[in-house]
Design a protein that fits this description.
The protein contains three helices and no strands. It has helices at residues 3-28, 39-48, 66-78. The chain starts with a helix and ends in a 27-residue tail after the last helix.
Length: 105
């Protein structure tokens, strides 16, 4: 072996030994984690789980008719949804407020 190959081989061996020692020491290190480590992830997962037996216990929203809502849900479940009739959006122009209203124009 000539000197150049010997230096290259020695360098490779030293680097491999240093890498092995570094990996060995990293495996021995114990992380210092708090008692609540991972709590945010657990809370996020819990917030994303739907309640399969959810019940509404509040007041019915004004304007909703329970029998119509039940019929619509039934039609949806059976795939017989009533499509809305086509409507054209109306465009209107509001009159400018009077100067006595105090609004800036």
């Amino acid at each position: 072996m000539n000197g150049s190959n010997r230096n290259t081989l020695t360098t490779v061996i030293v680097m491999a030994a240093a890498l092995g020692a570094g990996l060995g020491l990293a495996g021995c290190a114990s992380p210092h984690l708090g008692a609540d480590f991972g709590q945010a992830v657990r809370q996020d997962i819990a917030a994303q789980v739907a309640n399969p037996d959810a019940r509404f216990s509040g007041v019915i929203a004004p304007g909703s008719n329970p029998s119509r809502v039940a019929a619509a849900q039934d039609r949806y479940a059976k795939g017989k949804v009533i499509q809305p009739s086509s409507q054209v959006a109306a465009t209107s122009v509001a009159a400018a407020p009077s100067s006595s209203s105090g609004l800036v124009q």
